[in-house]
């Protein structure tokens, strides 16, 4: 009997090849899309989970509240904090600092130019006891204990030494520090919030780098702790103020412990977070909803087409009952056929995943680990899903058709399919509700990203080349660098200072008057007189720094010049700030010489901060040059030549300022790309199902169409007749989808301080687009039916 059912199932699939292809392809696309998205989400949820002590590791986060300003969360702490935590809190088993030391010149031979490497960190000897990294070369237990030993990443190893074991090889850092490669960290299959090229021991590098490990002033590093098994992190968290207050003033500062499991997805509110590939829980939730929606649309298609086709098999049911088939046999047959198609779809989905995975990885900028056929939990989950979909799709025709009376169907009496028709219409509405919500969401996400990338920043980020010289004596060569670069025809201005106006910079606590407790926070920049022209800030009061006025940079007097931004002036409440004394610290008072319009170095999710600009004679770290558009490559080449004349043994490395800016929105850009791709996929699957359903509906009305044409109906009348039914369903879907989309988008936009308005016209516009797509899909089929010869139509059946 089973063989007979299987043969009948294959025969029905082959007899209605078009419907079968639509059914299998639509469901396969939905499953494949869902699997790819969920694999992306799974990687985000598993971030850092490869560490053995994953659930016991925390970092100490500060909440800084000064002068009535909004509290800010900061992941950096004081240098001495980690030693205090391990010493004074019994629940702490291990502690380690993670201290970034910026970009450094690294050489494998002192005679070679070397390379500038980013993401170099100093750590304590306990780092590898806390974090479970696997070494490709070297011994994890002794690597950081060797004389001068450091650990490098596998990528850095390949970059510096090629595909060989570098353990025992020397590296020279900033021409002063000699290090021995003691280990190479293997590339991780699971994501990690730590992205490093070199890990070096603090106790060896602190002295040559002139770092004070016992310092309590300033926040320079991340403090990790690992608690003993069973210890309560809430109790440790509660003890932090009492412990730390014994060593420093805690006015305006609170601390809490952030679990390692939250670093990747729950850190968007934290400043100075070193994570490069940080994501956001809202991104994960959005993608999960899309994955579910895509799968639901595909399943609805499958169920819709299955129930629509089954009504044509009523005569087959009657004959089977006459020859002895009972109701259980018929139910088993219909459900079995649906499961068989679902299994075919799942197999095809696995093939599709393999084909499109490389393309998706390019869009997502991430390597995914997904294999439907690997025999893992994923495989069995998909088989269970196929079984469930098959049962749901086959249930309606199985129970309804198996209840028909043989005499009724064999006499070709009209079968009442009102309930089935109502079900199919409801499912079509459901599909388009989801599709319209996704379309509206895509439009708003894209508009918010466009706003973030193109809003007025208060400076011009285009055509600015940023160079890190990494030379401690740069301030002695400032004029030489400026002179040589200004000789290049393609450069209009050159500025040298402490930072560029993108991303977070150093923050200082300033006095507001003479009261030591009345302090406020501001971002601090050191800029020379040429920054105004290079970055194209807008001066709204007073003047900027002047190279001919010595007091502008005289840090030994109380005439040091200070430039504020609008937010700083508004916070201080000064109506006429130019000429106003400015308290730099308890001993030094500067003079405000000018006010610039607010510029926005941070993402749109964060507010503009008070900003203080000075010209410190020794804070010469970054060179920025504004280049002309005409011949950028020739200008860069000339800059490299001039650079090597000044620094013959140092490599020339540069980036454009807008590259740093674009990096602020990596998560949003990826989300926008992914949402566009999968919204398009969901809409395609919905249209595919509508096409199949419309084709079925049109075929059932073939004789009616022929009669109408004989009675004088035009082609347009026929198209309108068939289109009307589906157009009403799409309009109903719009009415349901608009309020749902409004709630979802309003909630998503609430995470941004600077955001686009919820423009009302987008909702009807997307509704019209959905209506046009549906009408076009149905219209093509209706047009084909309307052009059929009425004689052939009336002879139909």
Key terms:
single chain, 797 residues, alpha+beta, 14-stranded mixed beta sheet, 7-stranded mixed beta sheet, 25 strands, elongated
In short:
The protein is α+β, with helices and mostly antiparallel strands and 797 residues long.
Number of β-strand runs = 25
- Percent of sequence in beta strands: 15-25%
Distance between the termini: 31 Å
Structural class: alpha+beta
Q: What value does the average pLDDT take? A: 82
Query: Helical percent range?
Result: 40-55%
What are the low-pLDDT stretches, counting only 5+ consecutive residues below 50? Answer: none
Q: Could you say which overall geometry the principal axes of the C-alpha atoms support?
A: elongated
| Computed Rg | 34 Å
How would you summarize the topology of this molecule?
Blueprint: H1 2-15, H2 17-45, E1 57-64, E2 72-74, H3 81-88, E3 92-100, E4 104-107, E5 115-117, E6 120-123, H4 127-130, E7 135-138, E8 149-153, H5 154-161, E9 170-173, E10 177-185, E11 198-201, H6 202-205, E12 222-227, H7 233-244, E13 253-259, E14 270-271, H8 281-310, H9 314-322, H10 327-364, H11 377-401, H12 406-410, H13 418-454, E15 464-467, H14 478-486, E16 491-497, E17 507-511, E18 519-526, H15 531-535, E19 539-542, E20 561-565, H16 566-572, E21 581-583, E22 589-596, E23 611-614, E24 622-627, H17 632-646, E25 654-656, H18 657-663, H19 666-700, H20 702-710, H21 715-749, H22 762-786, H23 790-795
Parallel strand pairs: 2-14, 6-11, 8-10, 18-23, 20-22
Antiparallel strand pairs: 1-2, 1-12, 1-13, 3-6, 3-12, 4-5, 4-9, 7-10, 8-11, 9-10, 15-24, 15-25, 16-24, 17-18, 19-22, 20-23, 21-22
Helix pairs in contact: 1-10, 2-8, 2-10, 2-19, 8-11, 8-13, 8-19, 10-11, 13-19, 13-21, 13-22, 14-17, 19-22, 21-22
